Amino acid sequence: METADLLALLDGQQFRRLRVIENLLREKKTVSTLYWGQRYRLLYLMGLAKKLPRGALDAPARALEQQGLVVAGETADQIKLTPAGLTAQRNVNYYRSQTAKDWGQVNLMAIRERILLAVQVVSQYAHSTKRYYPLATALETRQAVRRWFYQVKGPNLSEQMFTSLQNSLIQLPEPVAEVVTRLFSGYQQPGQTAAQLAQDRQCTSWEILLMQLDGVMQIAQDAQKQSQPLTKLLQPMWQSPVSRSAQQTLAAVGQGRSLEQIVAVRGIKASTVREHLLEAAILLPIKDFPYDEILTPTIRQTFATALTGPIDDWQYTALPEAVQARYAFFYFRLYAIWTDKRGEQDA
Question: Does the model's pTM come out above 0.85?
């Protein structure tokens, strides 16, 4: 990730922690990372760079600071844009994803691999080529594409694939469709790398990835809406953003069980139950979480009276001792999530 990529992820009012952004990219799903990812509106970054080295954002951050574009907060890990940085961010023609809000609903990077390999396989099949070097992908991807290919292959497969991909890509800006297409490999076409395209387009490789993921998401959405060649290959990749264990805890709440009952029935710690519920509250739309069952009107009123100012400035330890004694940190954090979600809904 280059300085331009980090610049696009920062804010002029809110200090943002580099470790939170880094953990999102590396898919470290702690409640703290998820909560601040929600506050930063950067949850779409989840798992997009799982092999990112720890501390990889430090050098770009230092470069931005040397240019006078960011300033550090209480620690060097917290930075926000200076007025000059905000101007630079606004003036740079940096790509903004159109489909990022939906990325959490799918295993996006796995879908990307499946589509790239499927396009290559169908292209070679259309030209009756049996010997070629397949793209380097995970074993699971190769197995899934192999099973899919033998299910759908036929004399009209290449034409059907071309039509479905074309129908998806024409819904995106022309430069995005071009990037997605040029990244495809096929018969006598090795496909360009992100670095090559970035050089051609005078942008960063990360921007190329964002464009490609927009294309991938559009293809996946269209394959879900109607039956087409890629439907069976991509359908298993749709998923709840919430972990399976957290879904079970959430289901137990829906059955009317108290937190104490869930602990007893599921045989897990109370802290784990609370982590599950906070995860679900962060990742699900406000309408899909049982706030009324957990965050009662009395609890909401208590926190509404005690908490003022911006959400990011709220501190549990600053609450009156009587409130802390009555309500654990879990309720404080859940109230913050609920308040944040309501603000999003009203925006």
Answer: yes
